[in-house]
Amino acid sequence: MLLATTRLIPLHTNKNKTISQTLTKRINYSKNPDKTQKGELVTNYECNVRTADMEFVLSEKEYAYTTRREQRNNDIIAYHLRQAFKPGEIDPETANKVGYELAMRFTKGRHAFIVSTHTDKEHVHNHIIFNSIDLNCTKEFKNFWNSSFALRKLNDLICVENGLSIIENPSHPKKHYSKWLQNQHDKKKPTNRENLQGFIDEILEKKPSDFEEFLEMLQDNNCEVKRGKHISLRLSEQKSFIRLRTLSDDYSEKSIQDRISKKLNLPIKENLTSDKNKKINLLIDIQNSIKAQNSPGYERFSKIFNLKQAAGTLIFLQENEITDIESLQESAKNAKDSFNDIQNTIHFSDARLKEISILQKHIRTYIKTKDIYVGYRKAGYSKKFLAKHEAEITAYKNTRAYFNEQNFEKFPTIKLLQQEYAEVLAEKKKAYSEYHKARKFMKDMLTAKQNTEMILNYDNDEQEKKITNQHVDALSVFKVLAPKGGVIMVAEQPFNKNPLRDF
Length: 503
Known about the structure:
Layout (H helix, E strand, L loop, with lengths): L4 E8 L6 H12 L11 E4 L6 H16 L8 E9 L7 H16 L5 E6 L6 E7 L15 H15 L15 H11 L4 H14 L5 H10 L3 E3 L5 E3 L7 E2 L9 H8 L7 H24 L4 H7 L4 H13 L5 H54 L4 H6 L1 H16 L8 H42 L4 H9 L9 E7 L2 E5 L12
Antiparallel strand pairs: 1-3, 2-4, 3-5, 4-5, 6-7, 7-8, 9-10
């Protein structure tokens, strides 16, 4: 499935052209009447479509005057954002609205922009040009690290919210969109191996009596057969032979013989694609459920959430490459186990640090009071000696009692304890640095699992019992954010219960 693709292009100053010439050329191309239905598909924000280039130039000059910053060669004067859609999936008017929303959310409404929707190609696409200077002419747009990735995530989110398709593993095309689109179409063509598998299935459907007749039927239907230690086949459009044993386990000589003798009766075509379908079904099912807003799963989900939260769940699954319900359940369990391991490490470290501190204290007390107790013993346990050193003698006895409880034959040195303390403390700090990240990921994963099961109507009876006792007003569990610093979704407590109790 294809998704609207995006590309962010900084527009720089040029030695051969002025700022005005550069902006005018690019803006005029984007709002070309022949491409935008005579200008009907051009929208604007905080600028006039006719004079946008001059307004951008004036803002550049005002910014330079306000900040006393001199214009340099190769400075960014504006940004050109391209957004292309899958052919036939969206009408031009809706595409323009989607482009406007993308520009508004990406710039946070702080920069003037125009959105031009072109219809001169097979695929509808937007040209969005926004000013690098903000509306107050005091700041520049920061083309931050991984801004293209953040833009793609935001674009994915908006597309899902508007019922558009999303790809399983999105990537930015490095060529013109129409060529990239054709490549995506070409990738769907079956390979020689898939063609050969389909041809074998067709022959087997004619029910040959034995393997030898099967090979003869292949030859009668223009398929070359090369005999030897291993049987190899070649269709007329193939350049080289392909051994049966290299196709897959279902197409080995033994498997074909078993199918002929009806010992193995498998729907091979379905088996070949079952793993792939199983892998991508989760994302597709969620998309379809979002699109079909009258579906049972979506109807139940929408009582508690809205379309943006559903889209956030889908994007979260995509980012973590989770494409089937089994992987989601396993990932949720692994996330919880990982968090528990970190938590246990911290608890163990705390306990051990406390033990080491207590042991160090007793060892120091023992060293300080040992000689006094020896003197007390040599004095025949004199009451006068005891009265003079009662505190030290009592501390010594307590220390000896502690050592006896710990069954120490020989207690460690202070130096060794200090070394162990430093190691345990370093381990705790390392675990603690991962604690909050693991906790948030676990909550997001468990929330995504719970949302997915509700959207797709998994465990319907059990879910219905959960929903019966819910209060809608208390069930806003997601904050779906425009990508800032890589954050898409922050999960809180869903369904008036802690999702961590699912396991």
